[in-house]
User: Fold this.
Amino acid sequence: MTASLQEFERDLQRDLRGLSQQAHVAVAVVICDLMLPSVGGPRGATILPVLKDAVELAWSSSQGGSLDRAEIRRVLAGVEALVSSDDEPYSLQLAVNDFAIFAVAYALDATIADSVQNVVWCARQLVELADSVEAEGVPPPGAEEELYILVTAAIRRIVRRLGQANLSSVRDDLALERDQITRLVFDRIPRADH
Assistant:
């Protein structure tokens, strides 16, 4: 882990500590919302509906919905079962799918365990996904540091907005972050891999 990623995670932990558990879950859900459009490839059609349902369950809990821990654990186990096996040949799309799966798992875990660390790990999945896309050298070329800065800045804006706004409206009010992440990260995943 680079020093800049450690610093980002430390700052994120500090910023999250001032927010409620519902806001922690909302941050994780919004990060997952940013990642779900990247899910694709041969397994994408199977994975995506499960992840969307899991994110909606986490969102519902952040909005004061009933929290059935047994149901969340059941859904969490189903999400974790989606992780690719070591037998599957590596592809960028496979890695992207796994990052999204891990992010959703951390979001679900944040609903039952009020742990800032789960949200930090969720955010880290988006950062590592961007790093993986960059490491593949997928055109258009760009400096890794620049992509890292843009992704971490988007996560910081999400946390700041959630700290200042009504949680229920923030999820729909992140078009800038969605557009930036899509253009800079997800649009760089080769279509043949989608």
